[in-house]
Design brief:
Number of helices: 5
CATH topology: Fumarylacetoacetate hydrolase, domain 2
Number of domains: 1
CATH class: Alpha Beta
Length: 230
C-alpha cells in the first residue's frame, strides 16, 4: 500500500495509505461537449467508453508524490486534475489536492484503462479540506505548464466549473461503498491548448483559489527509461 502525506494550511500533516485509486474520465460538466470529444478521440483511434463519465480503477501504488516520472518512450504526457483524498471517516477528512495524471498515449489507443495503469498519478504534498472550499469550488482554477527542461509554457487553463464537482464523485463513491479511508479519486482533465506539445520533459500543475490567492502545486520531470535488450 502507498502512504501519502499532505500538509494543510494550518500546518497539520495528514497521512493516509492509498487502498483504492480511481481516475475519472470524460468528466466534463457538459456531457454534450464530452460526447463531441469522444468522437474526436475515436478518429484518432482511441476506443470510445461504453458510458460517460467513466471511472477507471488504477493500481494503488501508482499514487505517488514524486519529482520524477520514468517513461518507456516519448509519447507519454500529463493532465491537470484535482484529486479527492478520503483521509478519514468524517466530512472534514475529505481533502482536495492538485494532481497530474501521467498517461501512456501510445497505449491509450488500445485501451484507456490500460494507459492509466502504465504511468503514475502524481499528487501534490499540500491539500485543502474540501469543506473549506466547497462553497467556491467552481471558482478554483486549474493551470498546467510544460517544457523540454523547464515547465514554462502554458498548456491547460480553466476552472473546476468545467468538470464534474467533487460532490458528484462523493456520491459515486458512496454508491459503490468506496467512500472510505484510503480512497483517492482523480477528477479527469480540462482541454489542452492545441498548439502546445504535450510530450514534454517537464510538467507543472497548479490548483488555485482566486478568493484567497492560495495555490497548491505539483511538478515533475519526465525521464526516459534505458532502451530494452531483447
Amino acid at each position: 500500500m502507498t502512504p501519502l502525506k499532505f500538509e494543510l494550511d494550518n500546518g497539520t500533516v495528514v497521512e493516509t495509505t492509498v487502498r483504492t485509486l480511481l481516475n475519472g474520465g470524460y468528466a466534463g460538466r457538459s456531457q454534450d461537449d464530452v460526447r463531441a470529444h469522444v468522437r474526436e478521440l475515436a478518429e484518432l483511434g482511441v476506443p470510445a467508453p461504453t458510458e460517460t463519465p467513466a471511472l477507471y480503477p488504477v493500481s494503488p501504488y501508482l499514487a505517488q508524490q514524486t519529482g520524477t516520472v520514468a517513461a518507456p518512450h516519448e509519447h507519454t504526457s500529463g493532465e491537470a486534475e484535482w484529486a479527492l483524498v478520503v483521509a478519514g471517516d468524517r466530512p472534514e477528512d475529505l481533502l482536495l489536492t492538485v494532481a497530474c495524471d501521467h498517461t501512456d498515449r501510445a497505449l491509450e489507443v488500445h485501451g484507456v484503462a490500460w494507459s492509466k495503469n502504465a504511468a503514475p498519478d502524481v499528487l501534490g504534498s499540500r491539500a485543502w479540506r474540501l469543506v473549506d472550499v466547497a462553497d467556491r469550488i467552481d471558482d478554483l482554477t486549474l493551470t498546467a505548464w510544460v517544457g523540454a527542461e523547464k515547465a514554462d509554457t502554458e498548456i491547460q487553463r480553466g476552472t473546476l466549473a468545467e468538470l464534474l464537482p467533487p460532490r458528484y464523485w462523493v456520491g459515486v463513491l458512496e454508491e459503490r461503498g468506496l467512500l472510505r479511508p484510503g480512497t483517492v479519486l482523480l477528477s479527469g482533465t480540462i482541454p489542452m491548448h492545441g498548439q502546445v506539445d504535450q510530450f514534454a520533459g517537464a510538467w507543472r500543475v497548479e490548483l488555485g483559489d482566486p478568493s484567497t490567492g492560495g495555490a497548491l502545486g505539483v511538478a515533475y520531470d519526465v525521464e526516459r527509461l534505458p532502451e530494452p535488450i531483447g
